[in-house]
Amino acid sequence: MATNTARKAVRKLTLQTTAATSRGDDRQLQLLEIACRLFSERGFSGTSLRDIAEEAQITKAALYYHFPNKEALFTKIVLESLQALVTTVREACEHAATPEEKVRVFMRTTAECYQQNREGWIASSNAFRTHEESPAKTRAVALRDEYENLLRGFIRDGIKAGQFRAVDPAMAGRVLLASINSMSRWHSPRGKLSAPMVVEQFVDIVLGGLLAQPGAAT
Q1: SS (H, E, C) 111-157
Q2: pLDDT-derived band of residue 216, with 50, 70 and 90 as boundaries?
Q3: What pLDDT shows up at residue 172?
């Protein structure tokens, strides 16, 4: 049930993105793809507008027509992806019945969003970490907090319902999200386990714990 709910939410986001792209500017899409690749390889601060223009084989003036500065790229790559993530995860979790299921759907949907656009996820994360303070960064932090607070709320509800132990919801949320935030450093998209499969196992371990229960079969 949780898996199907997550997949439906991500599929909806994919269809919306495809439709928007077909109505948009192909050149802008190409520039965004190049920017994402360079940001994921070199980092946000290590990539200049000149680098993007040279990779696209256009003049800087042509690039400025679409993105006058890196702040505009930050808005497009980071803010829009964060907003899409928050919306997609929230909608998927609305159909989950229990706090535990909501946590599982939250994590599964996030993992599918990561798998759907791994390069864009890495680029967005790099840009978020290294970008200096600005109005766009402030909005990005607010969206990040909204996303993380959603998960913490599910954990808090699980504690109240007696499904989870009385742990610190913020700490538990960080432990869960670490499985996805660190995935780009070790997980291969060509491996035998997909990102959602890895995250499902991680969630099982965190929710179940590593200690065997007395009398449990081994």
Answers
A1: HHHHHHCHHHHHHHHHHHHHCCCCHHHHHHHHHHHHHHHHHHHHHHH
A2: low
A3: 95
Q: What are the CA-CA distances from residue 107 to residues 3, 117, 139 (Å)?
A: 10, 16, 23
Flag whether the pTM goes above 0.70. Answer: yes
Amino acid, single-letter form, for residue 69: N
Quick one: what percent of the chain has pLDDT higher than 70? 85
Band (217; pLDDT cuts 50, 70, 90)? low
Instruction: Name the residue with tokens 């869960």.
Output: 176
Residue 159 near residue 165 (C-beta atoms within 8 A): yes
How many residues does the structure list for the chain? 218
How many Å apart are CA 150 and CA 164, to the nearest integer? 16
| Region label for 215, one of left (φ > 0), alpha (ψ between -120 and 50) or beta (otherwise) | left
Task: Give which of 43, 24, 178 is closest to 111, Cα–Cα.
Answer: 178
- What class has domain 2-22+70-208? mainly alpha
Q: How many CA within 13 A on the CB side of residue 97?
A: 1
The residues, any chain, with a CB within 8 Å of residue 133's CB and separated by 6 or more, are none
AA identity, residue 110: T
Question: Which tokens in the block code for residue 143?
Answer: 């969206």
